[in-house]
Amino acid sequence: MKILVILLLSICLYAKDNLYFFPQDAKVAYEEIEKLIKNSEHNIDIAMYNFGDQKLAKLLDKAQKRGVIVKIFYDKKDVDFKHIDAKVLKKKLHTKIAIFDKKTVVFGSLNWTKKSFSKNYEVMYITDDKKLLTKFNEFFQKL
Description:
alpha/beta; Endonuclease, Chain A
């Protein structure tokens, strides 16, 4: 029984479950996104209404160059993706989702634009909850 309790506690300690409120948490949240991009090994799937942050776009290009498969669906963009499969969908895309290695999802009201990270009131949630990840990965596949 003690081993089971220790195992459950260790899982809880290592579970990623973070909620950020902008603008006060913007810097920490931005750093977390950077870290997720840099540490991704297999794939990054993004469905983002508006993508305009140049630095994140460059990090995604670098990830693609090192072998990470990066797919981006967007409705509006203010950056150029050099080596990335990025496209506009036929229907209005208003989601703000990023899935890293099918293991961690970032979602909320936040577009990846300079204004969203510096001036807007936004909410961003990061989790590795398996039930949520299953639903988000299924949603992304349907796009």
